[in-house]
Specification:
Chain lengths: 202, 210, 273
């Protein structure tokens, strides 16, 4: 068994989290609050470091325009006071606008043209046929998949079937990915508990 | 139309800034590019301010809980606030509190986060048993996609048969690409539409207007 | 009518125990299943192997603590491999937790002989996601006046040659966010740098369209590809050690799927007739 304080801390906290498997209990509540508190403190400190590094330091070195984003950033906290909560609309509107503008600028080439170009392949193999038909039917399904008329639904049923088959295989692959991540986490935890802590794993 | 400080001017500011950034992307005018770069740096600074909102919200909620003194688990709120304050100081003054910071991040925060997420594994295994049934065509394809990629994702798949990794690769590269690409293009259309609506002020819910 | 108490679902507890044992047993008694090198990890390896002393690689750390078991080994392998080829590295973090791991990798690189300021520079956390990355690639020195420790970039020899995204030969993003897969190709397309995405396994399916179209040059799929990369570098570490247990877990899951379908076809469908 390890005699390291750090290893014991990690092991006991991990067991505290796993106590959730028998139901929500006071031990789990303690580790949960500890995790949330540490996470929030860390994020706020990192944010403040960046505000000083990218805001206040260049401001004091002569870049006077930085008063504007610093003021806008402080205005976000106006939301906590009802009479001046409207001030927080400015920074939020600006940040969302910047994000939207960047999305609009690059999406046409990155998410449309390049992707559509790569889908235009000769239908000379089973894989290529699956790729083209799968992509086209999936896009069709998103826009027209909920046709109201029964006649239309019956006419285009094969498109729905092809689209759903494609998407189900994609979702199955996605499920595997999520599983893989959780397996990696659990294996790490087992190695930590049974290896570093209890010394059962060499 | 009367432009009000509270309702309209945020949208006007957002429109002007958005247009500058979009035009600067497509048209090469050095002065405009400099302004666009500066505006993006401003967004970086503003975003840094948002990282304190969690701390403010949590402090407000948990201080009220402690002050009310009517909850059995008020000590959890004390623990949360103490942990928050300690980690804030240890992170901001990392040079002076290096070993405390490393201990809290590497031996407390990291393992707790990993353990909490890993709890999902148990639920996922139960879901695999209960949910992955070949009841219909959709069920067949989802099981096929999942099982093919599961065995391909681990060395045991290649040990069982050389065709398993090839099948797994095929699933990732063909039907998965088809499905993901369809979703990608469709959601890109949606993102473009929403982006344009935000810039011209038709979409206002993000700032608390209808 | 009184409500009946819920029946205890012992079968859930049995599955939980089986999951645990399927990973514990291979760790206690390694199975020694060979780990073949796949084309995805080979592609990343070959790209980094081709780098030289004139090349600068941007490494971006963009994952959180729960993804560290998959992503940290990936980032470590890519960074140390690139440094061994003589390439220079600039490290940033696009997530708050990633900043800690960016520091960890930089410290490890310096411990292994890299010269800070000449071979590797750690700029620190870059908030704002796409806006931050866009601003950074447009003007590196405007976004970061100093490195993470506060040293002005003018005092760091490596940063005299890096001013915009065009000065990077390649960008290696280690990410847990599916969002990154949309905005990194969008923002990098005007600069011509190659894009390597080392992702957690759950984001791997979403990366495939970009890999196929060539917008992403190469990628790493979770812990499996991290293990393969460790073997390619002859530095087996945590990812390699986890592979037998991973195989055990997957075999159990497949067995559960098969068992549930056998039970369905033999018992449930018969009941329904």
């Amino acid at each position: 068994m390890s005699s390291s304080f750090s290893v014991w801390t990690t092991a006991l906290l991990t067991l505290g989290v796993y106590s959730f498997l028998i139901g929500y209990n006071p031990v789990f509540a303690i580790v949960e609050h500890l995790f949330v508190g540490i996470g929030a403190g860390y994020m706020a400190a990192i944010g403040l470091q960046n505000i000083v590094k990218q805001g206040f330091t260049p401001l004091t070195n002569g870049n006077a325009w930085l008063v504007v984003p610093i003021a806008l950033g402080i205005m976000i906290y106006a939301r906590y006071s009802r009479p001046v909560a409207w001030l927080s609309r400015y920074p939020i509107a600006i940040v969302v606008a910047v994000g939207s503008a960047l999305t609009i600028s690059g999406t046409i080439q990155a998410q449309f043209i390049a992707q559509i170009q790569d889908t235009i392949v000769p239908l000379t193999s089973f894989s290529n046929i699956v790729l083209v038909v799968g992509t086209a039917t999936t896009i069709w399904y998103f826009y027209f998949g909920t046709l109201k008329s029964k006649a239309a639904q019956q006419s285009y049923e094969w498109i729905s079937v092809a689209a759903r088959a494609t998407m189900m295989m994609a979702f199955g692959a996605g499920y595997t990915g999520i599983l893989a991540g959780n397996i990696a986490r659990m294996v790490g935890i087992i190695r930590q508990l049974f290896g570093e802590w209890l010394h059962f794993i060499k | 139309m009367k432009l009000t400080l509270e309702r309209n001017l945020p949208l006007v500011a957002a429109f002007l800034i958005g247009v500058i950034i979009v035009v600067a992307y497509f048209v090469d005018i050095p002065q405009l590019t400099r302004v666009s770069t500066e505006l993006r740096n401003w967004a970086v600074i503003i975003t840094a301010f948002t990282m304190g909102i969690g701390l403010v919200n949590l402090s407000s909620v948990h201080v009220k809980r402690i002050a009310a003194m009517n909850r059995k688990d008020w000590y959890n709120s004390v623990l949360l606030l103490a942990a928050m304050g300690t980690m804030f100081v240890a992170t901001y003054y990392q040079k002076s509190f290096e070993s405390l910071f490393k201990y809290l991040f590497d031996n407390v925060y990291g393992p707790l986060g990993t353990a909490m997420m890993s709890l999902v594994m148990f639920g996922m295994a139960v879901t695999c048993y209960r949910g992955f049934k070949l009841k219909n065509l959709d069920g067949f394809f989802i099981v096929f996609g999942a099982v093919a990629t599961m065995l391909g994702n681990a060395p045991v798949g290649a040990a069982i048969s050389k065709y398993i990794p090839a099948l797994s690769d095929w699933v990732y590269k063909i039907p998965n690409v088809a499905g993901q690409r369809g979703i990608l293009i469709s959601s890109a259309v949606g993102a473009l539409a929403v982006g344009l609506r935000v810039l011209v002020g038709l979409e206002r819910r993000h700032i608390g207007l209808d | 009518m009184t409500a009946q108490p819920a029946k205890p679902q012992h079968w859930r507890r049995i599955i939980h125990l089986l999951v645990f044992l399927s990973m514990l047993i291979p760790l206690l008694r390694p199975l020694g299943i060979p780990i073949p090198i796949g084309e995805t990890s080979r592609a990343v390896y070959d790209y980094i192997q081709a780098l030289g002393p004139a090349d600068v690689l941007l490494v971006s750390s963009n994952f959180s603590v729960p993804q560290a078991p998959e992503c940290l080994p990936q980032m470590t392998c890519v960074t140390l491999h690139a440094l061994s080829r003589g390439a220079k590295i600039v490290v940033i973090a696009s997530s708050a937790d990633g900043a800690r791991y960016a520091t960890t990798v930089t410290e490890l690189a310096v411990d292994e002989g890299a010269r800070y300021g000449t071979d590797i520079v750690l700029l620190g956390f870059l908030p704002g996601e796409e806006a931050g990355v866009s601003a950074f690639l447009a003007d590196v020195h405007r976004t970061f006046a100093t490195d993470q420790e506060g040293t002005p970039l003018a005092n760091l020899p490596l940063m005299q040659t890096v001013h915009t995204g065009s000065d990077f030969k390649g960008v290696s993003v280690t990410t847990a966010s599916a969002n990154d897969m949309d905005f990194w190709p969008r923002q990098l397309q005007k600069y011509g740098a190659a894009l390597i995405m080392a992702s957690q396994a759950s984001s791997w399916p979403k990366l495939q369209p970009y890999l196929r179209s060539g917008q992403v040059t190469a990628g790493l799929n979770g812990q499996r590809d991290a293990a393969e990369y460790e073997l390619l570098l002859h530095r087996p570490a945590s990812s390699v050690a986890a592979m037998d247990a991973t195989s055990g877990a997957y075999l159990l899951i497949v067995a559960l799927v098969v068992a549930s379908n056998v039970a369905y076809f033999v018992f449930e469908r018969r009941k329904g007739r």
